[in-house]
Design brief:
With about 270 residues, the protein is of the alpha+beta class. It has one domain: Beta Barrel (Porin), CATH 2.40.160.40. About 15% of the residues lie in helices and about 50% in strands. The chain is built from five helices and twelve strands. A twelve-stranded antiparallel beta barrel has the order 1-2-3-4-5-6-7-8-9-10-11-12. β6 and β7 form a beta hairpin. The N terminus is likely disordered.
Length: about 270
Amino acid sequence: MNTSLLVFRSSTAVIRSVAFAFGLIMPLAAFAELSNDSLLGLGLRSRPAYDGSATQRIEMVPVVRYFGQPWFARSTQGVLEGGVRMEFAPGLHAGVQLAYEPGRKTSESDFLKDRNVSGINRGASVGLHGEWDRDFGPMPIALLARTRQHTDSDLGAQADLRLSAGVYRGGRVAAGVFTQATWANAKSAGSFYGITPSQSVATGLPTFGAGSGWIFGSVGLLWSIDLSRDWIAVGSLEARRQHGDAARSPLVEHVSNHYVSAGIAYHF
């Protein structure tokens, strides 16, 4: 059977299982990234130590969304970012952004610590984005294309393509789904997944040259619940799978990872 079809079915099965389990706890609800309402709050996220790690970590994360004229800031499209954007046609925006890049901490992964693999410092990226929003009947759609060049030129650049759709709304609750693909140039892929000859000597891992290409794809669920006129609970579930050289790297323990987040935000 085609490998891509197997990957798709596997990711879909994971999302369905997680969604079912989550539904036993609370009803599905508002898709934060499919609205322009302003939010400010705090949440918790369970994530891998790095994409490809077998270790999960829990951290506090901001819940931010603000669209002004022309400034914007948000954490609801997979990246914490802010900048300026302009509307060139109804529902069509483009702009520039400064984004937070989390890097990779050796201390968060036993695999990296045991092999003395060096970390990658947290930093920032600058880039361009274009976004198209449109309602198809009762279903809102958001398509985002984004480039990110790390401010440390040695860490290269990445590009994201993200599609989100609202699938349910009823009273205070709603739900959405999304899928995202991310590509990296040779510098970015090599920094996170490559192993140079000198690194091979230090870590005991085989030399590996990671080239440019598709590094991961993901599918997920978005939810939110209007708790009151001013407060909202939001969250997401995501299944992510490495591809290309990122999946073949000796640094990757698991080619599949998951992210789960939930938070409360003030609605203003």
